[in-house]
Amino acid sequence: MAAQGSGSARGSGAAAALALVLLCVLLHGELAESAVYTVGDRGGWSFNTANWPKGKRFRAGDVLAFRYNAKAHNVVPVSAAGYKSCSAPKGVRALTTGNDRVTLKRGANYFICSFPGHCQAGMKIAVTAA
């Protein structure tokens, strides 16, 4: 009888190990799906970054890392109209740490620097996430 009990325990241990392996695979698959992009690559978030997204494929859930001098710039999520006019609506919260991370939502995502003249000088990006 003792052999049956230990065989049963061995079977439940194997099932638990298999469940753990499957959980790890699923979690890894979720994490592997998102990518992190540094806006502006080595130059960071700065002037003339409007063309930086060209040629890149973004997906909802990907993360944009904005790295910049926090004393000289900021990051403001805006609408398409705000992107075109280089204006942020009143009350919108600017990101100001100099090392901000934004998770992309499906569709169009727009960002500008709201310091006077910076957006007009090309410190803005439009990213479309599939």
Structure in words:
This protein has 130 residues and is of the alpha+beta class. The protein folds into two domains: 33 residues; 95 residues, Immunoglobulin-like (Sandwich), CATH 2.60.40.420. 29% of the residues lie in helices and 22% in strands. 18% of the residues are buried. Keywords: Copper, Disulfide bond, Metal-binding, Signal. InterPro entries: BlueCu_1_BS, Cupredoxin, Phytocyanin-like, Phytocyanin_dom, Plantacyanin. GO terms for molecular function: electron transfer activity; metal ion binding. This is Plantacyanin.
Task: List the topology elements.
Blueprint: H1 2-33, E1 36-38, E2 63-67, E3 76-78, H2 80-85, E4 99-103, E5 107-112, E6 124-129
Parallel strand pairs: 1-2
Antiparallel strand pairs: 2-4, 3-5, 5-6
